[in-house]
Amino acid sequence: MRPGGKVIWSIGATMMQGQVLGAYFGSHTMLAGGTRLIRPMVITVCILMSLSQIARHLDFTLG
Question: Is the pLDDT assigned to residue 17 strictly greater than 80?
Answer without folding.
Answer: yes
